[in-house]
């Protein structure tokens, strides 16, 4: 029986992608959008995503590699599988799940049930299976959170502003050719809000800052070239130095964007 191998989980503008391939072939890993994980993230945030990833693991998946998106899951599950309490939890879930399958298919002790009877009993029994699965997933999630915290803690030293998700990347002084005035220009990368705050201060007059989504800024760089987008060199240096902070920014931009799209869909339905 083949197992789906996953070595990376990525947040993109339109959803959650996994890098995957089957264990029974020699094809390279390829990136595909997971509607299952995307929906889990939209409805439950990172906690919902973690639950879905764990459920995938115990269904028919395994993790490979040392990417930061995968390592918290790998380490947490390895530790859980050596914990006696967790072993009892998964054995309980497997037993209940096996019984549910027997009921649904009218196997073993349930072979004399009619189809209607098996459906009724199965629907009454199913919440017990779900409760056991939730208990299993929550046990692992607690460990995953600890591992994520450890990864961040052991990363390179960083300024307090960066830990808080806001960092001033570009302090520049220029001459405005049109007015001959000296102004300073700066850009804040705000990973908590998934935005870049771009502002110019002209003399004593402060222009309103432009709030740009991180993904849109990257799109502009790709479309027009680094040399044609203000501050792009510094920004690229920054995200290469702190890739997990950049990923957090995309994560928050992605979540906010999808939430807005969902709200719009609900309005249109009304």
Q: Could you walk me through the main structural features you see in this protein, from its secondary elements to its overall organization?
A:
A hairpin with a 4-residue loop joins β7 and β8. The two termini are 46 Å apart. Strands 5, 6, 7, 8, 9 and 10 form a 6-stranded antiparallel beta sheet that branches. By secondary structure, the chain is of the alpha+beta class. α1 crosses α4, α2 (71-80) crosses α4 (115-153) and α3 (84-105) packs antiparallel against α4. The chain has 8 helices and 10 strands. It has helices at 35-60, 71-80, 84-105, 115-153, 160-163, 214-224, 232-241, 243-269, and strands at residues 4-12, 15-22, 30-33, 61-63, 166-168, 172-176, 181-190, 195-202, 205-206, 210-213.
C-alpha Rg, in Å? 24 Å
Q: Whole-number average pLDDT?
A: 81
Shape assignment: elongated
How many beta-strand runs?
10
Strand content: 15-25%
Instruction: Output the structural class.
Output: alpha+beta
Helix content: 55-70%
**Largest sheet report:** 6 strands, antiparallel
Write out key terms for the chains shown.
270 residues; alpha+beta; 8 helices; 10 strands
Could you give a quick summary of the protein structure above?
This protein has 270 residues and is α+β, with helices and mostly antiparallel strands.
List the helices and strands and how they pair.
Layout: E1 4-12, E2 15-22, E3 30-33, H1 35-60, E4 61-63, H2 71-80, H3 84-105, H4 115-153, H5 160-163, E5 166-168, E6 172-176, E7 181-190, E8 195-202, E9 205-206, E10 210-213, H6 214-224, H7 232-241, H8 243-269
Parallel strand pairs: 1-4
Antiparallel strand pairs: 1-2, 2-3, 5-7, 6-7, 7-8, 8-9, 8-10
Helix pairs in contact: 1-4, 2-4, 3-4, 7-8
């Amino acid at each position: 029986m083949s197992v789906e191998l996953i070595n990376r989980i990525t947040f993109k503008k339109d959803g959650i992608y996994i890098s995957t391939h089957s264990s029974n072939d020699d094809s390279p890993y390829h990136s595909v959008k997971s509607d299952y994980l995307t929906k889990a993230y939209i409805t439950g945030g990172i906690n919902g995503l973690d639950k879905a990833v764990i459920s995938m693991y115990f269904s028919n998946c395994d993790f490979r590699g040392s990417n930061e998106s995968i390592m918290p899951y790998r380490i947490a599950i390895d530790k859980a599988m050596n914990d006696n309490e967790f072993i009892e939890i998964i054995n309980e879930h497997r037993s209940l799940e096996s019984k549910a399958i027997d009921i649904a298919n009218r196997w073993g002790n349930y072979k004399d049930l009619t189809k209607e009877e098996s459906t009724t009993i199965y629907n009454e029994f199913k919440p017990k299976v779900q409760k056991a699965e939730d208990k299993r997933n929550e046990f692992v999630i607690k460990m995953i959170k600890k591992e994520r915290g450890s990864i961040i803690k052991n990363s390179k030293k960083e300024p307090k502003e960066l830990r808080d998700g806001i960092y001033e990347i570009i302090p520049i002084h220029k001459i405005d050719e049109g007015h001959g005035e000296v102004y300073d220009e700066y850009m804040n990368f705000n990973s908590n809000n998934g935005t870049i705050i771009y502002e110019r201060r002209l003399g004593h007059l402060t222009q309103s800052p432009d709030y740009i989504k991180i993904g849109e800024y990257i799109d502009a760089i790709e479309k027009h070239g680094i040399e044609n987008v203000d501050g792009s060199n510094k920004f690229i240096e920054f995200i290469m130095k702190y890739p997990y902070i950049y990923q957090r920014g995309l994560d928050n931009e992605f979540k906010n964007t999808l939430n807005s799209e969902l709200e719009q869909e609900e309005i249109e339905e009304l």
